[in-house]
Design goal:
mainly beta; Beta-galactosidase, Chain A, domain 5
Length: 265
């Protein structure tokens, strides 16, 4: 099966587009659409898995165990967000989906994603596997949340301990600095508590993940992104996780929702 999978639980409805990178194509809660449902290209909408790397890879080039590799350049002269989000996925079992990492990645491997919808949230688990030998990897998710629902404008509750300095190419270095005021296209760490998004009077989301890094992109009028990642952008050139057969890279992410208290009387 490679089409659209629909799930419903309570007053939540989820659409998973397997042909468009195994992404959450729509997430409606109490009649409110929370995600951007279309865009000019595959990086601009939905909530999609980033694997086998998250964020940019400088000039699409990296070295692993003494050998140089080149990736397809996809944005601003760099590779970005992996290959899984442009691959067609297949349903492996109820709630579990798989895809090859495709021809744009130089190592044979696959990704597996579990997506579970409940009445109060959606939980995701992402695994990056290799078929033989070893390969570097990072992973995460890239959700595009709508900024406005009706007349309510989203408020992000986010408390990072540091942000990573970006260089002239806009790519995160490993130099830490105190978080600045937005707007952001930046990677953060030591986040206190779970990031939360509120549309006042309508809905509150809590974003839960053990991923140690979060990228926030809030430079669009209509939407913004809050992305859990296992490593900062350009990890393939710094400190990637090394995947081996039977030793996948694993990440988890949950989006939990609640309604505001009802006023008495």
């Amino acid at each position: 099966m490679t089409g659209t999978v629909t799930r419903e639980a309570g007053r939540a409805r989820l659409e998973i587009d397997l042909a468009a990178g195994g992404r959450l194509a729509s997430l409606q809660v109490h009649g409110h659409e929370l995600l951007v449902t279309s865009g000019p290209g595959p990086i601009h909408w939905g909530a999609y898995p980033m694997a086998p790397y998250a964020g940019r890879v400088r000039n699409g080039r990296f070295t692993f165990r003494g050998r140089a590799y080149e990736l397809p350049v996809t944005l601003g002269g760099h590779a970005i967000h992996g290959t899984a989000y442009v691959q067609s996925w297949e349903e492996q079992s109820d709630g579990a989906f798989v895809t090859s990492l495709g021809p744009g990645w130089p190592f044979p491997g696959w990704a597996r994603q579990e997506i579970r919808l409940a009445h109060d949230g959606v939980s995701l688990r992402l695994e990056v596997h290799c078929e033989e030998g070893a390969m570097p990897a990072s992973c995460g998710w890239h959700p595009w949340f709508v900024r406005r629902i009706g007349g309510a404008v989203a408020i992000l509750d986010f408390h990072p301990g540091f942000m990573l300095e970006r260089d002239g190419a806009g790519i995160s270095t490993r130099e830490r600095r105190s978080p600045s005021a937005g707007p952001w296209d930046d990677c953060f760490g030591d986040v206190q508590g779970s990031p939360a998004i509120s549309w006042p009077g309508l809905l509150r989301l809590e974003l839960q993940s053990a991923c140690p890094y979060w990228v926030v992109f809030d430079r669009r009028e209509h939407a913004f992104c809050v992305e859990p990642q296992t490593a900062p952008p350009d990890a393939l050139n710094h400190d990637p996780f090394v995947v081996e057969p039977g030793r996948p890279l694993v990440a988890e992410f949950a989006i939990k929702w609640s309604l505001p208290p009802r006023a008495d009387g």
